[in-house]
């Protein structure tokens, strides 16, 4: 086990100064305004009302108290005044109640709209990145942090609104105290400062810790994904690894969470001292106002006024600090979000390929994976003519799949070129090449949320679904029989977890059935270039023989097959044998067998040679 908690933590990222802070808030507001301008305006108005209204209510409550005291002392007009103030206070309460109901709805609309826009943008960017970035750890780390921000975007917006309200409330409360006594206002202001400072320090430490734990959290997440997938449970139980993984997960979680809690624990005494200071300020203010009332320097209602306003200033300041420290972390992740959204995308530009090329040439291709030291492809040259059937063979790790990805334009070669009828692939609009390509890779997709028919249709969604072609593709991939046996045939969902709108449950598929479905999808695409990267590893030999028999009998399609099975390989016009990132041998099956070289040695056991004279039986 590689315990990430044992790694030395990385240095914390630089602190946010006030300017980027303001810029970040501005950025959040801009995006939100674009998504829903009316809602942003309502939110600003709502924040101001939320700050002002409690103070106005307190003011009338204080007036009511004073009027009551006067009425009690025998002033008949004061009683009427008190009733009027009570009615005004009730009216304000009614208005506040109605306003909060509307405001709650607006907040939900806004959260939804803004969250949807930001989330969609993030997905789009992630899915359109240059392909090499998916192998790059720094990109994935940044994505993780940026995703954290985008997931909480609407919450950030709510917090910004809350901060506006709280800030306005504190300022107004201090202003309201200034009207009564400048030094009471000053005492309250001073009492607020230590608490603000402490909360900020705590949140900074927690944030720095969070950023050092990216790897351990990812490890934990991957373990959790493994643990909850039913497909994995069989192996995990059979290997008896469930307990071990649970234990590893708990250790990673505890190391992360306990450290956070430890920070909080360390701050408790300091926080208590800061709280005591605040209570002290409140008591001082109250004693002062009591003295003033007794000396008849202030009306009776002023006690209520001071008590309410001071307590409001202190509690709102505390909430402000909590909001600021929680948004602190979010805004730091906003920087990551912005950086991530600046990553260039792979799509766009370039000359459009007018028709399927008649020849594809790989010219002296070299490639090294991002972050890797070893060159995986070391100068590969080969050419594929229209209608030709090519097989690429070689040991595990020889570079076959990498070569396919370069041919498909997913990876850019380090040196060398992919040429389509002499045109450089890197200068072309890549999607115009993909239209002529159908690639089925080893780790093909299982669309578990869809029906069998749609799993095939997803091979080409650019035109409306054609059920006749779906059925033909299924026949060619030998998938018709098992699909026909599903309770609802092609309209059957292919996962036990799914159910259609009529309540018909889906059925799980075997590994080979999934593979046939993926191959049907590849055929349905109807592309002139078919690339199959170990397409039949889970398909039984007879079915494979029939599928490839049909496929290779057709000269309409150019076929490039990566395979370890001789039955498939020997049908190809040209076989390229890769070894250590280079073409070690090439030729027809017969030529390579006669050569008695590497190809021969690799497939010797499958050749079924007559041991007497070394010829095929
Ligand atoms: N995403 C990746 N990041 C870094 N290195 C990789 C990545 N994928 C493959 N490699 C490395 O590149 C080399 C070639 O891998 P590739 O998948 O092309 O081999 P292959 O011939 O298709 O193997 P197999 O027969 O096992 O499918 C391997 O040594 C592998 O370690």
In words, what does this structure look like?
Residues 44-204 form the ABC transmembrane type-1 domain. GO terms for molecular function: ATP binding. Residues 360-605 form the ABC transporter domain. It is found in: Cell membrane. The strands form 2 sheets. The protein has a 6-stranded mixed beta sheet, sandwiched between helices. The protein is an alpha/beta fold. It is 62% helix and 10% strand. Helix 2 (37-72) packs antiparallel against helix 3 (76-127). The protein has a domain at 18-341: ABC transporter type 1, transmembrane domain (ABC transporter transmembrane region fold, Up-down Bundle). The structure holds adenosine-5'-triphosphate. The site of adenosine-5'-triphosphate (ATP) has 12 residues, from helix 11.
Strand content: 5-15%
Say which CATH homologous superfamily of the domain at 18-341 is assigned.
ABC transporter type 1, transmembrane domain
Low-pLDDT windows of residues: 1-16, 611-617
What is the overall shape?
Answer: elongated
Mean pLDDT: 84
Brief rundown of the structure:
This protein has 20 helices and ten strands. It is an alpha/beta fold and 617 residues long.
